[in-house]
Amino acid sequence: MATTVFLDTDQSAAGVVGTHPQPATMTLAVAPTTGSETNTIRLRLRTVACWRMDDARFDFNSSFIVPAARKEFGLLRQIVKTNPGCPLSIFGHADPTGDDSYNKQLSGRRARAVYAVVTRRPDLWEEFFINPGFETEWGTRSIQVMLDALGFAPGEIDGQIGPETRASVRDFQASRLGEGIAVDGDPGPSTRAKLFAAYMDLLCRADDSDESLRLSPTDFLGGGADPGGKVDYQGCSEFNPVLVFSTAEARAFQQPGATKQRDAENVPNRRVTAFLFRKGLKLSASKWPCPRWNEGVAGCRTQFFADGDRRRNPQENRRQFEDQGETFACTFYDQLAERSPCEGTGRLVAFRLRLLDAHRDPISLAVCRTIQGSSTARGEADENGCVTVVAREKPSKLRIEWATPDQNQTTEFPFALEVFVAPGDGAQGAFERLHNLGYSFEPTLKERVLAFQQDFGRRQTGDFKDIETELRTWHDGGEKPAVTGAAA
Amino acid sequence: MPTEHIVQPGEHLVGIAAKYGFFNWQKLWDDPRNTGLRATRGNPCVLAPGDRLLIPDRRPKTILLSTGRSHHCRVARASLRLRLLIVDFDGTPLSNANGKLAVEGTVIDVMTDQSGLLKQGIPATAEDATLTFTDPATGVEVVLALKIGQLDPVETRAGQKSRLNNLGWNAGSVESEDDEAFRRGLREFQAQNGLPVDGICGLQTQAKLTERYGC
Fold it and tell me: Are A398 and A423 in contact (CB under 8 A)?
């Protein structure tokens, strides 16, 4: 199972919190009157702080929250603590892949899943468990992940209830966390209720103290008054992206084989945000334009900018909210996110590396480890040998070590390379691409070109321009050149 | 000799009249030499900087009174009012909100009525005021700094921007040359009010803006 590598930076690799700079008091030009003329003043809804948790903390295409999210819940604990009495509302976001309705459901489920964790509502997770809809990650696999995170060793996390998993369930049921339930090895509803609750506690507990993030419905903007969570949490479907591709990029991503690349580049758009509002504010459902988490998109569209679809869809150039603004289709969300560091900064970038073996062929499901200074991060490549790496900014070079999946991971990784992450054009670009492809021992470009030409039976010219095109096709596109001539 | 007065930013007829010692601003407004201005502007409280106003000479009024008796003289002083209709972000009126209006060194207790309207008499020379109130529905305190008289006519870009901003459509600051923010805010206003969304504030849009804003 391919897992993304997160280059750990600052507090969290997959989230951020921030305080919104508050504008100076509104100064309004008004006219006095000797008659009945009036000045109509409409107030704005102001947010004071924000939190964001990135896609990495959910299983792919899922509302199941992974154990690593402890870090981001830690950030949420922080921002709530520094803004006492400021109510929250949670917003889920999806990337443009898939249709609006599908994404409305997924983004809504993610927002609700987060709400459930912080308010300790295992019953809401149970609803997702028994009605996963299009989601594939709830089920036995999620149970195994939770047991594993809690220290109950379920064996391999494979989605099958084998004997090891059953034993682990029994251990959980027999433990203090499973008080009151039958020890029968069956992860039924009552066991799940306890398991979800224990896992939620784990997600919200601080590493280094007794502190735990625990919110009540009244800590939210709607006060928990609406049973469908209106005002407290909702999904924005794909309507509010922070990154919009150019039309050329979007077209390229529609090509067969470009799916994984597209998904990687869309990482910044798949996120859950929460805004904190002015202290003491409470809003009733009637004042809130957002439809509920499980309702359709019609309500969203009533809030669109006149040119909302144009804003959120590809235009000539690639656009980001933090630079060009105007990527959100929804006027309401745009108002809330104004000045938000969670949407305007702290952006993540994603890039992909293809890991090759000694024959320069991709290693399916390679395990790998990146090293930056003193910090390391692990991940696993997909069937095509590609691993997605996510970071705050693209490093120019990255040291990565990798191994075939069957190699014992406690030994040194047999393959290691300092990769040039974004080779450019010309001679330098060719040098870096050749380096990445394993032609890294020869000191000069000419020698590396000659080595390549020898391997693939090309005429030995030593001129990079002779191999430039096929070098790019191989390095950037994954198509290994065919061997011709004498070497064939 | 009548004086010509060129309207400065923030000035309105009632304030100007008071400066020249006229209690009754109507005398200036109705003066035949100001017919043109009257026709153009319509609202004596919404003048544009640069507008020309003819100030007639002040003629002392002569009243014949008999001696030995006391007389009451009532001065016709036009009252100047501030009328604010305050609505929440979703357009619902802020009804029955208690607040304080600080103007020219005095703090007055004020309250919006059921429809969200706040009416308060103010001195003719008041230029700045601060309104602080607590929204009864949400419990949040709001502070508004008011520049009385700074609202320009709707025919002017500044006047259009101010109205859009006050109505909650972000049209950029009046001082800024930025056209983009203005056009964005204007388009949103047009979209919400059933007007052609063209980013041009023509007569139809101006009329709707005046209607929605209140002046």
Answer: no
Per the structure block, which two tokens stand in for A51? 């939190």
Q: Which residues of B touch A333 (CB under 8 A)?
A: none
What is this model's ipTM?
0.89
Q: What tokens appear for B209 in the block?
A: 């803006």
Residues of A in contact with B84 (CB under 8 A): 30, 38-41
What does the pLDDT look like over A418-471, one tens digit per residue? 999 989 899 999 999 999 999 999 999 999 999 999 999 999 999 999 999 999
Nearest Cβ partner of A31 from B12, B90, B143? Answer: B12
Note the pLDDT tens digit of each residue in B69-108: 888 877 666 678 999 999 999 899 999 999 999 998 899 9
Going by C-alpha positions, the residue among B89, B103, B186 that lies closest to residue B135 is B89
Cβ A460 vs Cβ A453: under 8 Å: yes
Give me A265's structure tokens.
């580049």
| pTM assigned to the model | 0.77
Contacting residues for A224 by C-beta, under 8 A, at least 6 apart: A216, A217, A218, A232
Across the interface, whether the CB atoms of A40 and B213 are under 8 A apart is answered yes
Query: What does the block give as tokens for A26?
Result: 């509104």
Beta carbons of A111 and A91 less than 8 angstroms apart: yes
Report CB contact under 8 Å: A42, B191: no
Determine how β-strand A233-235 pairs with β-strand A375-380. Answer: unpaired
CB A406 within 8 A of CB A20: no
**HEC profile for A141-159?**
HHHHHHHHHCCCCCCCCCC
Within the 1-60 window of chain A, which residues sit less than 8 Å (CB to CB) from chain B? 25-34, 36-45
Integer-rounded Cα radius of gyration of chain A = 26
Chain A neighbors of B104, CB-CB under 8 A: none
Strands (DSSP E) along A149-199, which ranges?
none
Residue B91: list chain A partners with CB under 8 A: 42
Is the minimum CB–CB distance between A285 and chain B shorter than 8 Å?
no
pLDDT in tens, A132-158: 988 888 999 999 999 999 999 989 999
- 3-state DSSP assignment of residue A163: helix
3-state secondary structure A24-41: CCEEEEECCECCCCCEEE
Termini Cα distance of chain B: 34
Six-digit token string for A45 = 């809804």
DSSP state of B195: -
Structure tokens at A79: 């921002």
The tens digit of pLDDT for each residue in A44-87 reads 888 989 999 988 888 888 999 999 999 899 999 989 998 999 99
Longest dimension (CA), chain B: 72
Alpha-helical (H) ranges within A319-420 are: 321-324, 331-337, 341-344
Q: What torsion, rounded to 10 degrees, do the Cα atoms A74, A79, A85, A89 define?
A: -80
Q: For residue B193, which phi and psi values (nearest 5 degrees)? A: -115, 20
